[in-house]
Amino acid sequence: MKRLIIIILAVMGGSFATLSAQNAPADACSMVREGDTFNVGLNLNLSTTDVKSNRMVVFTPILVGEKDTVSLSSVGLLGRRRYFYYQRNEKRYPEVFENENFRTNDCPDSFRWDESMPFSKWMDGASLKLHRQVYGCCNDVIEESIIDLRQFNDYHPVFRWIAPEAELLKVRSLQGSAYIDFVVSTTDIRPDYRDNRRELDKILGTIDSLKADADITMDTIYIKGFASPESPYDNNTRLAKGRTQALKEYVTQLYRFDEDFILTSYEPEDWAGLRRFVENSNISNKAEILQIIDCDLEPDPKEWKLKSTYPKEYRFLLETCYPALRHSDYRIVYKIRTYTDIEELKRVFKEAPAKLSLREFFNLSSIYEPGTEDFNKTFEVAVMVYPDNPTANLNAANAAMGTGELDKAERHLAKAGQSPEAVYARGVHAALKQDYARAKSLFAEAASMPDNSSVKDAAQEAHTEMDKFIY
Hints:
Number of helices: 16
Shape: elongated
């Protein structure tokens, strides 16, 4: 919910016959918008008020706008003779007793108004005024004045969106791991052996999905094979290298890829994978086992030390962890064509938004009215596709601030980087959260940063505007 507040320490000039010229009658007031409700608070300083015995002074706060006005309840201060006269003739003057009133000698040092009303657009820019009327002995107004207290200004942020750089080539990749079983000490692939069909389908299914998409062109496939630390290092080297080559040949033959389309590498023993497993487990002697894994011993002496020192734990690792260390990691690099037609952008956004570049998301947003649901959704989906991109997060933060979702905006701003646009957006966020001093500082920072041409003018204007809200 959007909540805007102005705390005002008002110092009003002017002399009053019945009030001290050195002291302001209203020493503090507030105007608050909270959603659809507008709250007005006002402190009236009565400590120096002096009302003649047969006079009455009435104070009425008034909210005055271009198209409408609203009067708050009045408070009256009655001189001694006037007070007792109304007491004796209460039935003749019922309107006097509808509002708060005090005898001068008994009045408090201050009086506080706290009133709420439905917010209307005309209140943006409206002024809070204090109407003072002095009544003589015949109930005639013999003196009156209207004093300006303060103008209410609703903060209207100006957002600065960033157009991302266009990608000359939209290069993406898909990756995964396949756990293919081989007969002991062999390197030939048997698709029907154990769960090999399912594991091979991980790779083949990814290739098939990319080949079936007319917008995508595959560029390269990378395969890296791993063996477990079990057995001598030289044998594991042979197995990792041979099994990786076997997988390359299997895929190449199925799809008739060129020989150099699939690039391979291998790692004889996956000690890093073993370490991750141990670190995330509750295995006994965990710290000591990690020390062995991290030590500078050669692979074979290291494995022997682990096996001989902690035989029980080694058997556990051999059964539960080592099979997963025999795997083939793959990464398929591909290109996606560029979309320029608006209708096509709409279709891809709906069906497969991950195929869009950040610039294409931005181009799509340009067909919608800023602040509309479609406009904001474009940036929300863009940051889902590119969750760590500063530009995506900045634009998503602006969209969230536009709908009053300040907590969501704050999360995006944390990833928006330190560009002038990001600093400016943090200033907007601070202003919307009513931290006007911080907002002013951030706007000044954005205006003084290098390469700030896109936000300099807006930052300078916002910096000056904050003076309306800081008292």
